[in-house]
Amino acid sequence: MGVEGIGARVVRKEDRRFITGQGRYVDDVKMVGMSYAHFIRSPHAHAKVKGINSAEAMKMPGVIAVLTGQQIVDDKVGNLICGWAITSKDGSPMKMGAWPAMAPETVRFVGQAVAVVIAETKNQAKDAAEAVVIDYEELPAAADIKAAIKPGAPQLHPEAPGNIVYDWHLGDEAAVKDAFSKAANVVTLDLTNNRLVPNAMEPRAAVAHYDQAEEHYTLYTTSQNPHVARLVLSAFYNIAPEHKLRVIAPDVGGGFGSKIYIYPEEMVALWASKKVGRPVKWTGDRSEAFLTDAHGRDHVSKAEMAFDKDNKILGLRVKTHANFGAYMSLFSSAVPTYLYATLLSGQYVIPAIYAR
């Protein structure tokens, strides 16, 4: 169509600031009176939090506050949600356990936050975190999907008996059964789609500011979806009314889907800013990213394909166990269901498919 209109080349506008070091990321944001947050995270996969003693930490240089999971629950900050409801094949709703921003009583994965230190500098917050004494009662844990669904496996959430959130299906089971009964040949394949960790160049970060005079919050965050972040933080997490919350996503150094979600650290930073009366900055490090960013995949599947005597496909049957980890994130329920089973045919004509 020439130089204008659909298909025309679009000149990039952002490259100059990036290649000259002028990009502006969340960690570049500075505010008057800014304080720094460091999270204290569980070393256990499953444990009861019996007590938190922050007396020595509060005596250390620069420490402003040590805030706990029980405090954020007491202030009625909401639990993290899963925004896509899935119904099991028996018609029952999915059985999702509650995910508080910081654990008040029970931790369910290595790296789950139980408290946060707020200090004048990042290093002061890190040093003080070492002085906080947390008493844990370690509980049995299941480290992989096969162990978690065995009879008698450690129960993670009381809401999900047997650690099963839902038993969902899609397709025509009867038609697939009929196709297999007529098959001249059946091929069976066991597949492991391994777990992966997102690893963007820029780790997640948040800068939160509560303006007491205006009763207004501002959040700078490494988000691929700031509009959803603002909606969810206001409508579901009880941080603030939507007209009292501004969410800003400056330059984002990679996301690959992992920065679509709303994470506990953003909620805690906003809440903590009001508690201490100061802007609060948190910048995650690489170890925190590996522990706390939303992981992907971790599916174990058995696939069966039926063929006629001429090797034409008659039907496909797939059963998958998908590992959600300790909690359901914002869209996690959709990944092994409507964003997966609906794609099983690929580019092939398959008369009958059944996925569970």
Describe this structure in words.
The chain has a seven-stranded mixed beta sheet, with helices on both faces. It is built from nine helices and 15 strands. It is of the alpha+beta class and 356 residues long. A hairpin with a 5-residue loop joins strand 13 and strand 14. It starts with 14 loop residues before the first helix and ends with a strand. It has two domains: 212 residues, Aldehyde Oxidoreductase, domain 3 (Alpha-Beta Complex); 90 residues, Aldehyde oxidase/xanthine dehydrogenase, molybdopterin binding domain (Aldehyde Oxidoreductase, domain 4, 2-Layer Sandwich), CATH 3.30.365.10.
Number of strands: 15
Mean pLDDT across all amino acids: 96
Write the H/E string, N to C.
Answer: HEEHEHEEHEHEHEEEHEHEHEEE
Give the CATH superfamily of the largest domain: Aldehyde oxidase/xanthine dehydrogenase, a/b hammerhead
Instruction: Return residue spans where pLDDT drops below 50 for at least 5 consecutive residues.
Output: none
Total separate domains: 2
Which sequence of strands runs across the widest sheet? 3-5-1-12-9-10-11
Features:
Aldehyde Oxidoreductase, domain 3; Aldehyde Oxidoreductase, domain 4; alpha+beta; about 20% helix; five-stranded mixed β-sheet; 2 domains; seven-stranded mixed β-sheet; about 350 residues
Secondary structure layout plus pairing:
Elements: H1 15-19, E1 35-41, E2 47-53, H2 55-58, E3 63-68, H3 69-74, E4 106-107, E5 113-119, H4 122-131, E6 133-138, H5 145-148, E7 170-171, H6 173-181, E8 185-193, E9 205-211, E10 216-221, H7 226-235, E11 245-248, H8 264-276, E12 280-283, H9 286-292, E13 299-307, E14 313-322, E15 353-355
Parallel strand pairs: 1-12, 10-11, 14-15
Antiparallel strand pairs: 1-5, 2-4, 2-6, 3-5, 7-15, 8-13, 9-10, 9-12, 13-14
